[in-house]
Amino acid sequence: MELEAIGQLRDMGLTMKEARSQAQELAQQLLTDVKTWIEGQLAGCKHNPNDCLTLSGMNQVNADCDPLLRCTTNALDDMELQQLVISTQKSILI
Predict the structure, then answer these.
(1) Res. 81 pLDDT band, cuts 50 70 90
(2) What is the spatial distance between Cα 48 and Cα 84, in angstroms, rounded to a whole number?
């Protein structure tokens, strides 16, 4: 989303330096807008998801996976499946 934000800011006449400095804030707003739109589309599905999570920054070496694990675990309706996910994650960390 950051590249999209830089492009929009450049189209508004900002220099590259100015666009880069303001891109993160606009990118966050764009991401929020897209997430809201996606959630609206999914709400009409027969089996809509329990939650929706953006995965920005997950490709980084030091990415925080806790929100993803928490969201995945909470989305599972079956307690045994939740325990299986937690057990699997614990074994990976050891």
Answers:
(1) confident
(2) 23
Please give the DSSP secondary-structure letter assigned to residue 14: -
Task: State whether 57 and 94 are in the same domain.
Answer: yes
Angle between the N-to-C axes of helices 79-93 and 66-75, in degrees from 0 to 180, rounded to the nearest 10: 160
**Number of domains into which the chain is organized:** 2
Cα→Cα distances 64→3, 40, 55, 81, 89, Å: 22, 27, 10, 22, 13
Q: Are 8 and 26 in contact (CB under 8 A)?
A: yes
With vertex at residue 80, the alpha carbon angle to CA 79 and CA 85, rounded to the nearest 5 degrees, is 100
Is the pTM value of this prediction over 0.90?
A: no
Q: Are residues 80 and 40 in the same domain?
A: no
What residues make up the domain containing 24? Answer: 1-49
